Amino acid sequence: MIARAAPLALMLMLAGCGLRPLYGGVDSPARATLSQITVAPIEGQAGWLVTSALKDRLAAVDGASPRYRLDIRLDDSITGLGVRRDDAITRERRTLRARYQLVDLASGATLLDATAGSDAGIDVVGSEYATIAAEQTALERLAGIVADQIVARVALYGQRSGSAPARP
C-alpha cells in the first residue's frame, strides 16, 4: 500500500511546486527569444565552430525575423601541463572561453552580458598527427559545450524577462 501511495504523493507534490520546462509550450518566452536571435560573425576556426553550433541550436526553434544580435568574443588557448625531464610536454589543456552580449537591434541596448567556457585535457603522444587530431576534436567538443551554455543562459534570460512577444 505504501509502495503504491509514495509515487502518487511524489507526483502531487511536484505538480504543486511550480516547476515548468524552460522551453515548454509554443508561446514560451524562452522559445520566442531564441527564435529571434541572429549570431554576429566570429573570427577564426573556433568562431566558425561556435557559430555553427549556435545556429544549429537556434534553428531548432521556429525562425522569425531577428530582434536580437548575439555578439561573441572567443579566447582559445592550449597550455602544456605535463613536462618530462627532457622538457617534452605530455599533457595539454585546451580552454575555450566566450564573452557574449545579447543586443536589442531596435535600441542597441545590451540586454545580457555574460561569459561561458570549458576546457578539455589532451594527451600528447609520439605522433604529431594524433596530437593535432586530438586538439581539433577537443575544440569541436568545446565549441558545442560553449554553445549549449550560451543558449541555456539566453533562454533563461528570455524566460525571466518575458520580453519577447508571442509570435502570431
Protein model, in words:
- By secondary structure, the protein is α+β, with helices and mostly antiparallel strands.
- Helices cover 42% and strands 29% of the residues.
- The chain has four helices and four strands; from the N terminus they run H-H-E-H-E-E-E-H.
- It has helices spanning 2-15, 29-34, 44-59, 128-161; strands spanning 37-39, 68-83, 89-104, 110-123.
- A hairpin with a 5-residue loop joins strand 2 and strand 3.
- Helix 3 crosses helix 4.
- The longest helix is centred in the last third of the chain and has 34 residues, at 128-161.
- It is flat.
- The N and C termini lie far apart (49 Å).
- 25% of the residues are buried.
How does the SSE layout of this entry go?
Elements lengths: L1 H14 L13 H6 L2 E3 L4 H16 L8 E16 L5 E16 L5 E14 L4 H34 L7
Parallel strand pairs: 1-2
Antiparallel strand pairs: 2-3, 3-4
Separation of the first and last Cα atoms: 49 Å
Secondary structure: number of strands: 4
Q: From N to C, what is the helix and strand string?
A: HHEHEEEH
Q: In this structure, how is the largest beta sheet organized?
A: 4 strands, mixed
Count of runs of 4 or more consecutive helical residues? 4
Query: Which parts are unreliable, with pLDDT below 50 for 5 consecutive residues or more?
Result: 164-168
> Which word captures the global form?
flat
Overall pLDDT: 83
Judged by helices, strands and strand pairing, the structural class is alpha+beta
**Portion of residues within helices:** 40-55%
* Overall radius of gyration: 21 Å
Strand order of the largest sheet: 1-2-3-4
> Strand portion, in percent?
25-35%
